């Protein structure tokens, strides 16, 4: 990737989990560490892009070369930050594990335990960030991720088509890969078919993914 294949391109990458507050001390989150997305942001910067990294709550340092970092907490905040950052961007890569639901109401005081009684939380659907971008008339080249425990290919192809994406990177979660782990394995789906990126460190996989994105971007938009 020494060829600066993305020089002059603006790339926005989302990474990490989202946290949806229940009350002042509790939230609904997920196991994303941000490692995959941070590696993608670093690889895109190495490829010459001007990178904006929109990060959920993670404990990772900003990778070298990344021009802008915006820290957010909830899916709604992530949507707002991504929409603002992609206003004049060429490529959006959604590596974040965005929470699909949030508590319908956030309590302003700590919810107390009621012995013996079940507690029910009512959840409201969160905005779909990729869906929001896909609906715009002028939209960046859109790359989604798909994290699944089963039927990975079917769900990934379905998301690619339903969300109108240019490419999707699918990962099977579990077995020491995907969330939190240092390694991952990806299958890329796009109009040109499937490309396997076998198990490797997230750093290495991110370089391969960014090279494929740059190739495809140049073919359709370059
Ligand atoms: O962070 P790590 O610990 O390194 O783990 C990496 C990872 C497993 C989180 C990453 O590789 C990954 O797969 N990220 C996407 C996880 C996910 O939430 O997948 P999904 O199938 O729920 O979502 C599909 C796509 O839609 C994703 O690009 C997601 O960013 C996007 N999405 C989802 C929900 C939503 N409301 N808005 C979205 O844009």
What do these coordinates show?
There is one protein chain. It is built from five helices and twelve strands. The chain is of the alpha/beta class. It has a single domain (10-110, 119-220), classed as CoaB-like (Rossmann fold, 3-Layer(aba) Sandwich). An eight-stranded mixed sheet has the order 5-4-1-6-9-10-11-12, with helices on both faces. Strand 2 (20-23) and strand 3 form a beta hairpin. It starts with 9 loop residues before the first strand and ends with a helix. Ligand PMT binds next to helix 1, helix 3 and strand 9.
Offer a concise description of the structure.
This protein is of the alpha/beta class and 222 residues long. The chain is built from five helices and twelve strands.
Rg, rounded, reads 18 Å
Q: Which distinct ligands sit in these coordinates?
A: ligand PMT
Separation of the first and last Cα atoms: 17 Å
Write down the oligomeric state: single chain
What is the level-2 CATH architecture name?
3-Layer(aba) Sandwich
The SS-based structural class is: alpha/beta
| CATH topology-level name | Rossmann fold
CATH superfamily: CoaB-like
Shape: globular
User: Any idea how many domains?
Assistant: 1
Helix content estimate:
25-40%
The chain-level mean pLDDT equals 95
Q: What would CATH call the class?
A: Alpha Beta
Q: How large a portion of the residues is in β-strands, by DSSP E?
A: 25-35%
DSSP E strands, number: 12
Which parts are unreliable, with pLDDT below 50 for 5 consecutive residues or more? Answer: none
Number of alpha- plus pi-helical segments: 5
- In what order do the strands lie side by side in the largest sheet? 5-4-1-6-9-10-11-12
């Amino acid at each position: 990737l020494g060829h600066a294949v993305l020089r002059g391109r603006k790339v926005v990458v989302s990474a990490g989990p989202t946290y949806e507050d229940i009350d002042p001390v509790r939230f609904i989150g997920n196991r994303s560490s941000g490692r995959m997305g941070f590696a993608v942001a670093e690889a895109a910067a190495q490829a010459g892009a001007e990178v904006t990294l929109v990060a959920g709550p993670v404990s990772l340092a900003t990778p070298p070369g990344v021009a802008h970092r915006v820290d957010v907490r909830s899916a709604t905040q992530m949507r707002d930050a991504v929409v603002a950052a992609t206003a004049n961007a060429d490529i959006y890569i959604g590596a974040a594990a965005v929470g699909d639901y949030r508590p319908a109401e956030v309590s302003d005081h700590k919810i107390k335990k009621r012995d013996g009684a079940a507690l029910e939380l009512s959840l409201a659907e969160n905005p779909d960030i990729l869906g929001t971008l896909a609906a715009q008339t002028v939209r960046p080249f859109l790359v989604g991720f798909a994290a699944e425990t089963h039927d990975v290919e079917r769900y990934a192809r379905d998301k690619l088509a339903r969300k109108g994406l240019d490419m999707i990177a699918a990962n099977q979660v579990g077995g020491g890969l995907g969330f939190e782990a240092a390694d991952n394995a990806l299958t890329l789906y796009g109009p040109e078919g499937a490309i396997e990126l076998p198990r490797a460190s997230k750093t290495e996989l991110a370089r391969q993914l960014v090279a494929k994105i740059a190739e495809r971007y140049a073919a359709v938009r370059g």
